[in-house]
Amino acid sequence: MANQFEVVVIGSGPAGYVAAIKAAQLGKKTAIIEKWVKKDGETTWGGTCLNVGCIPSKALLQSSEMYAEANHGLDVHGIDVKSVKMDVAKMLERKDGIVNQLTTGIAGLLKGNGVTTIEGKGELKANKVVEVNKKDGSVESIEAENVILAMGSVPVDIPPTPLDGATIVDSTGALEFPEVPKRLGVIGAGVIGLELGSVWSRLGSEVVVLEAMDTFLATADRAIAKDALKTFVKQGLDIRLGARVTGSKKKGKKVEVTFQDSEGEKTETFDKLVVAVGRRPYTEGCLSTDCGVKLDERGFIFVDDQCRTTVPGVYAIGDVVRGPMLAHKGSEEGIMVAEIIAGHNAQMNYDAIPSVIYTHPEIAWVGKTEDELKAEGVDYKAGAFPFAAIGRAQAANATEGQVKILADAKTDRVLGMHIFGLNASEMVAQGVIALEFASSAEDLQLTCFAHPTLSEAVHEAALAVDNMAIHKVNRKKRK
Length: 479
Prior knowledge:
This protein is of the alpha/beta class. 30% of the residues lie in helices and 25% in strands. Helix 1 (14-25) runs parallel beside helix 7 (327-341), helix 3 runs antiparallel to helix 4 (88-112) and helix 3 crosses helix 5 (191-202). The N and C termini lie far apart (79 Å). The mean pLDDT is 97.
């Protein structure tokens, strides 16, 4: 007889493990299945984010930022540092240590909340039976009242640049370079490409980013994207827009990349090439043909607003469903689904999900952009304030960027907040809260912000929405 659970979760990334913990906290007999195996053969928890995504990349970003600061940013403070060197092996060792600590922590959380952990690859069969193919070759069948699909995503590869795991790599490989490449090519100027390109650029690589689109960061606010592009180019990133990669050729330990731009066909030779053109949902071998779960035209699992699939009692969350592939989005979906299974009427506000790019400075936003509001025909007003006029930013030698706030022209309700600047990833939470509570620009205007802080730029941007900024000259009102 198959093992029986009230909730079975397939995948232990930020969506899956959060769903499992919440379901267990709500009194459900819960199991979670994970197939990820480390180099030592042991199962690891936490999915892409903790193992080869969010966490290790941020560890490298932090190390590279400190190296760049020591090399180029301390003299302005009167600190004279000579012969700064980077020990890449030690940097990678630190990164791996952080990953190990956090994945071990997830295992402890699952155990501490009474979640049964099952190692192997889970496949949903008909009638909500989950079959687990284990490492030792055995197969276990599990009967579930409810199944939560949280298998995550994998990097997209493209035919012109087949991965070889050494010279041509995906985002995972770019976290493992044993030494700083002299010349690094990055295909894709999205979140992953910019973050990983920034890491190795700061450590000394000559980095060329090839982006097929003509627009830089098309999903971000145009003013913010323009500021960011200018800053990144100044930092040394060679960003080529409208550059469509058409082929590659290995030449010894190097790779020659062919691409098309407005001037015709061109080639560049790199020591390493990172393919960072996005991610796709991972469903291979996880859904049997008779399980009843439907996919949409892009390969995502089809779900409604509360993450129900086409099969009653089967839910899907995180990167395998529509919406941005963000860890925090998946986690919130996991909580929502667990609460629904427990009989609660849970909802999720998809209009208040923040996006962050962990470059230096950071880019973060929540809500609508001006382009989106224009396309929707919404009458809006905008206010912006530069960090250059913020005392704390000057003291931190971090005056690049701005905060921009968009509000409804009639109701004054905050519709979006966009930030390019130091600690933007932390400050954007103020915009998330404003959207979540349907705040007006006036609510932010009447809020007392501490001085001196970077967040004062949020206050001033809100004031600027109505031409009332204190620490800059406001634009003249139209008569």
